[in-house]
Sigma-54-dependent Fis family transcriptional regulator
Amino acid sequence: MQGPDTPAAGFELLIIDDDAERRQSLHTCFAFLGLSCHAFDFVTWLQQGKRFDFSAVGLVLIGESSLPIALGKLIAELDTQRVQPKLLACEWPELSSDDFARHGILGVLEPPYRYAQLLDWLHLCGRVHAQREPLALQAEMPGFVGQSRPIRDIRHLITQVAPKDISVLITGESGTGKEVVARCLHEHSTRCSGPFVPVNCGAIPSELLESELFGHEKGAFTGAISSRPGRFELANGGTLFLDEIGDMPLPMQVKLLRVIQERQFERVGGSKTLEADVRIIAATHKNLEVMIQDGQFREDLYYRLNVFPLEMPALRDRLEDLPLLIHALSAQQDEGVPLQFHPTALASLQRHSWPGNVRELANLIERLGIIHPGGVIGVAELPPKFRHIEDPQTPQSDMLAWFAAEDDERVALDSIKSADPEGLAGRVCLPAEGLNLKDWLESREQLLIRQALEAGGQVVSRAAKLLHLRRTTLVEKMRKYGIERQ
């Protein structure tokens, strides 16, 4: 029996009490509020052993025991599978206030049992239950990575709406993973054994979209040399995912609305009426409500699609998920060892605005995996637009610069030798009194650096290219000689 206008809590109640009258009273009260209740005395409960299924239990009510059993031992048995929220139906003198918090005891439920009081406790337990549900199902959604609050909320909503055979509208910026969510909804629905058929409404020319969705008969139009089923037929018994629904032309919106309302359609050029046994999930990065005001989207179609809205968070709003996403995307690389990211590189990436969201991150990981397979990624290895902090200068950095300078000088010498094997060009005669070779070479090096800067318009990267040096090497030499751009 359920009270008027009182929804079920979404979890079950376990009552353990040797006071039969109170046990029955509590059972009646909570059953009236819509809960499925399991009520036992202590002897019967202990006989259950580990056979009792706690998976749906969201609250345990503990009354008095006529057995010489310590409450701590009972609670340890209850929490074997996981810690359960608990309420005491009577006082247990052995407990202190610290014990309440340690054992997950919310408080003491004393008679008379008031409606508002019971709802408060159920609301609190419901929040605990809802918080756990996405965590428990994370392993079942391997493509849905993250532990941030926005993602946990989305995961919870997926578990709530997936079993319901209703339309879902997924909104969010491009690259946020709307198709991943659509697939999760399908895989956790009653239609999971049926096909999942995606259609990008923005990628199909408007004149072909009707045929793509509903199919066509032979001779329906020029080029229709044979009959062809549409996406509605291919998705029969499963899910049809209409991506970028905001790009659908208005005339096509009218036809789609009719199919959603009547659950029937005809192929282009055909007269036979076909049943549309599909669940529709739509997605868009556009603001459909603004489009309705501008006359670009039908309001009646919007309400047919938007039965249950899901808004995907942008990556910049869940940056705490970045390390998990990077690890998951690196593990998906086709070859080699996953990339490792230095903390400074992660800090730099967390300062990026991510306009392309997870898709932009996936592209970056793929690019880095090609250039640095199995490597450790620091700030210097990131593309320039992702470098939002300076690469810290360390003794290792100085050593790296030294090796780079040595390599550059060796390459330069090799190129000179290959161009002038006899060493005739630019031959210098040694003065009779001799010279300081180091000073002489440094003066020539300074002269060439200044000439390269002038030729490169005082742009260091251009000058480095002219001198066949790395930019960092040239910067070090300019610092050494005190050369500044004019």
Summary: The CA atoms of residues 433 and 440 lie 14 Å apart.
